[in-house]
Design goal:
There is one protein chain. This protein is of the alpha/beta class. The protein folds into 3 domains: 6-77, Winged helix-like DNA-binding domain superfamily/Winged helix DNA-binding domain (Arc Repressor Mutant, subunit A); 81-170 and 283-309, D-Maltodextrin-Binding Protein, domain 2 (3-Layer(aba) Sandwich), CATH 3.40.190; 176-282, D-Maltodextrin-Binding Protein, domain 2 (3-Layer(aba) Sandwich), CATH 3.40.190. It is built from 12 helices and 11 strands. The strands form 2 sheets. Strands 3, 4, 5, 6, 7, 8, 9, 10 and 11 form a 9-stranded mixed sheet that branches. Strand 1 (58-61) and strand 2 form a beta hairpin.
Length: 316
């Protein structure tokens, strides 16, 4: 058994809390106020932290204090530990209520792969609680690196691979992906075959936000054709909003990931148009922190279900 180090014996949760707060404020006075401590007590606590880590972590000036490189790295780790402590507190409360663990998943809105894996996990382990956060992939990765999520399911673009902290993450490719144009089953476009992208330039579109992977791929199609991309009537991220507004005849056309579009077609809500090309999207992947997880068995179980659901959806 590993013996506790001097740091483990001396470091307290209040030290971590101070570091987390100093990542948000620039004076000891402001930190003391947030912690409900006197300024001398907070200054003393900060000195204790620097002694424990063997050197200066903050630069002092008349304007306040600022973390040096070592201090910034420690603040980032302290923030992760504080979030993990909050999660442990939540899990203990869940255990008292008869639950058996908490898994925090990040995914794009309407991600079918993640949704099916969550459903399977809850069938197999009904006492587990799952928290799903939806959003843009860059924000989800930041939350994963910050300890707010256990894993993320989403597309990995070159931009994400250039993240300075990408080496801290474990990446597993799930499936290739492509873009689909969808319309109401009543749309005259559904009767056409091999539709050219230029033919759709004058239609009423609902498009995802400019920073989304789908929107960037859409823009690239028209730019490569030497054409101006169609203007959107509505801009929204949610696939549910896309389906609803098309069904209500507010817009004519929308964009979805191919797997999601095929599922909508199977349910009868939308039709996938027959385009001359189906632009490739960055592959869907699973991301998790390389650092040991507090929920390794639950996370590994979810990852296996995620791979199974991805293979079933895409026919791999």
């Amino acid at each position: 058994m590993n013996m506790p180090t001097s740091l483990v014996r001396r470091l307290r949760a209040r030290h971590l809390e101070l570091l987390q707060i100093l990542g948000e404020v620039s004076t000891v006075h402001a930190a003391a106020k947030q912690m409900n401590l006197s300024q001398p007590a907070t200054t003393r606590m900060l000195r204790e932290v620097e002694e424990m880590f063997g050197g200066q972590l903050f630069e002092r000036s008349a304007r306040g204090i600022a973390a040096n490189r070592s201090g910034a790295a420690l603040i980032a780790r302290a923030a992760i530990l504080m979030r993990e402590l909050a999660t442990i507190e939540k899990e203990v409360e869940l255990e008292r209520q008869g639950q058996q663990g908490l898994l925090r998943v990040g995914a794009l809105s309407g991600n079918l792969n993640a949704t099916l894996a969550v459903a399977q996990l809850l069938k197999q382990a009904p006492a587990v609680q799952v928290s799903v956060r939806e959003g843009q992939i860059n924000l989800l990765i930041a939350a994963l690196l910050g300890g707010e999520l256990d894993c993320v399911v989403g597309p990995i673009t070159d931009e994400e691979l250039r993240n300075a902290r990408i080496d801290e993450l474990r990446l597993e490719r799930l499936v290739e992906d492509s873009m689909a144009v969808v319309a109401s089953p009543k749309s005259p476009w559904c009767r056409r075959r091999r539709i050219k992208w230029g033919d759709l330039s004058g239609e009423r579109w609902i498009l995802p936000p400019p920073e989304s992977v789908l929107r960037r791929a859409f823009m690239r199609v028209y730019l490569e054709l030497g054409m101006s991309p169609p203007e959107h009537r509505v801009e929204a991220l949610s696939p549910l909003t896309t389906r609803s507004l098309i069904t209500l005849n507010t817009v004519e056309l929308g964009l979805l990931r191919m797997a999601h579009a095929k599922e909508e077609a199977r349910l009868g809500g939308l039709k996938v148009l027959s385009m001359v090309s189906e632009p490739k999207l960055p592959p869907l992947a699973l991301l998790a922190r390389r650092a040991p997880s507090l929920r390794p068995m639950l996370l590994d179980r979810f990852i296996k279900l995620l791979k199974d659901s991805s293979a079933a959806i895409h026919g791999d």
